[in-house]
Amino acid sequence: MALDIKICGLKTDEAMAAALAGGASHVGFIFFAKSPRYVEPAEAGRLRQAAIGKARAVAVTVDADDAFLDEIVVKMRPDMLQLHGSETPERVAEVKARYGLPVMKVFSVSEAADLDRIKPFIGIADRFMFDAKPPKGSQLPGGNGVAFDWRILAGLDAGLDYMLSGGLNAANIGDALRSANPPAIDISSGVESAPGVKDPALIEQFFRAVRAARDDRAA
Ligand SMILES: O=C(O)c1ccccc1N[C@@H]1O[C@H](COP(=O)(O)O)[C@@H](O)[C@H]1O
C-alpha cells in the first residue's frame, strides 16, 4: 500500500525542492500568525507552483474565518484544507461547501478515548489527522515536535483514512510505522535545524528512514 507523506511548514524553494525530490505526496503551508512557519498566502501561492502535478498543496489553518480562508484559497490555490483548530462538524461542512475542496480535520490525542471525537465528523471530513496534544504553555496547536503513544491508533477501523502526525523524525519513524501502520504521515519540526527553518538534508534523511522502514517490513 502506498504511504502518503506530507512535509509541512514549507517556506523556501530549497525545502520545497527537497520535499518533492524525496517523493512527498503532500506539501503543507502554515497560516497561523504565531507560528515560526507562517507564510503569506501569496508567497505560499508562489512556492506551491513547484508542486503542481507532483504533490498536493495543503493549507493549514486554525479556526480561520471566511475572510482569511477566501484570501488563502484565492492567493494560494490549495488542493486541500487542513483544519487544525476546534472547528465543529458544522463548520467543516460549511468550509467544504464554500470552497469545494477536500478537508482534513485534525484531532490532538493522548489516549484511545480521544479517538471517539472523530465520530461526528465521519462522512463530513475527507481525511483525519491525529497529532499530539500541545505541551502546556505552547502557543501552537501543532508543530510542537511532540509525539503521542502511536499504539492507541491500533484500534481504529482498518479503512479509516488518516495522517499520523506529531514529533515524527528519522529516528522514530520506523517505530511509528510498525506501531500504527498508518496510511499517511505528516512531519514538520523533525526536519528543521531551528524552529521554522527546514533543513533539506534532514528532509532527505527522513525519506531515507521511511524507505528503510518499509523495506524492512517487506523483507
Ligand atoms: O507547524 C506549525 O507551526 C503549526 C501551527 C499551527 C497549526 C499546525 C501546525 N503544524 C502542524 O502540526 C504538525 C506536526 O508538527 P511536528 O512534526 O510535531 O512539528 C505539522 O506537520 C503540521 O501539520
TrEMBL record:
Pathway it works in: Amino-acid biosynthesis; L-tryptophan biosynthesis; L-tryptophan from chorismate: step 3/5
Enzyme Commission number(s): 5.3.1.24
GO molecular function annotations of the record: phosphoribosylanthranilate isomerase activity
Keywords: Amino-acid biosynthesis, Aromatic amino acid biosynthesis, Isomerase, Tryptophan biosynthesis
Domain of life where this protein originates: Bacteria
UniProt record, GO biological process: L-tryptophan biosynthetic process
Cited SUPFAM superfamilies: Ribulose-phoshate binding barrel (SSF51366)
Matching InterPro entries: Aldolase_TIM (IPR013785), PRAI_dom (IPR001240), RibuloseP-bd_barrel (IPR011060), TrpF_fam (IPR044643)
Annotated N-(5'phosphoribosyl) anthranilate isomerase (PRAI) domain residues: 5-208
Family annotation (Pfam families): PRAI
Record has Amino-acid biosynthesis as a keyword: yes
Catalytic reaction(s) noted: N-(5-phospho-beta-D-ribosyl)anthranilate = 1-(2-carboxyphenylamino)-1-deoxy-D-ribulose 5-phosphate
Keyword Phosphoprotein in record: no
Family: Belongs to the TrpF family.
NCBIfam families reported in the protein's UniProt record: PRK01222.1-1 (NF002295)
HAMAP family the record matches: PRAI
Protein name per the record: N-(5'-phosphoribosyl)anthranilate isomerase
Gene source species: Mesorhizobium neociceri
